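Protocol step 4 of 5: obtain the predicted structure for the target chain.
Materials: sequence only (see below). No template structures provided, no constraints applied. The aim of this step is simply to have a reference model before the mutagenesis design in step 5. Sequence pasted as it appears in the construct record:
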Amino acid sequence: MTLSSTAAAGLDRGKTEARKRIEAAAADLIRLSHEIHAHPELGFEEQRASEWVAGTLASAGIGVARGVAGLDTALTATTGAGPLTLGVCAEYDALPRIGHACGHNIIAAAAVGAAVGLHGVAADFGLTVRLLGTPAEEGGGGKILMLDRGAFDGVHGALMVHPAPADARHMQALARARFEASFQGHAAHASMFPWEGKNAADALVVAQVALGLLRQQLRPGEQLHGITTRAGDVPSVIPDRATASYAVRAPRAADLDGLLRRAFACFEAGAVATGTELTIGESALRYTHFEPNAAMVKSYVRNAGALGRRFAAAAGQAQFGGSTDMANISLAMPAIHPLIGIESGGAVNHQAEFAAACARPSADRAVVHGAIAMAWTMLDMAADTTVRTSFLAKGESGHA
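Step 4 output (structure tokens):
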């Protein structure tokens, strides 16, 4: 980024002021993170979390709209003024049983911190900041619904940070589809009249064996995995119903259809082999692959590095898998999804031990660092004439 000496000095002053505001609010941001962490709520049920996020923003003098896009726990908050609008996304849903094992409490608090830091600063750079409280990332696709229903209208670029065991420029988010499969058989006494039954659980076993064999032929980056959700009640009765929930992932969204067809064929094999009836179909919104914006990535890495964050060399950097509805946003507008490291003692995302780490001192530092790095990155995007013009042009052309 090349700026005149006057513009560079103004940017430095803006960044200094944003950092002061975030550090002054650090206690409130960490309290918000801990409150959300201590009261995990599942997707679309984040009533307390969204209320706490809204309350923290309102206390900082930022207006909040709740229940946006027809979603009770979605919200938006706006500060600053100017033609360039950048969005910062807050997630706050948790996982069943293991709570905030993906650290969405950190994501929410860091996003709030970025908005607070730019309150009273953004307008000087012709920048409008829109915080978007996005429910149900863990499968529900809250961002997709908000995108489709207009909550992202007028946003020219978006960003968020996500906790992980180490800092990374971006997450290698895979495209993902989910489906449910159900086999209907016929019950019978497993000892006296087994020939009268059609074993739905056996159909699922055949399907799982076929899936295991299919994995040998998958391309790099393609995945399939799932769970059995029902397979009988007592061993003396041949199960008349068995159900499963599965996901398929691929490096590109265009590859999902073919992979789904192959996975469905494995379940069809189970039905044919056992004489049961199969019902199968997609059960969730599809998540796309992620296309990070190079200018935003470069700015974030530079800003996070100034705070002491360290990133592996790009060519050899470990790429974490997984999927996110933020990927859908990246295909609609410039976006980034960097990972911010916390000390997790070897634990990784979606483990109970990682959940515990998400409310410890290193997680609290990640809240503050993430807020500052995002605020600085948004100021960089607003101050860079080339990037600003590019973002505005994409917005005028429908984020093509």
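Step 4 remarks: The radius of gyration is 23 Å. Residues 5-173+288-396 form a domain with the Aminopeptidase fold (CATH 3.40.630.10).
Proceed to step 5.
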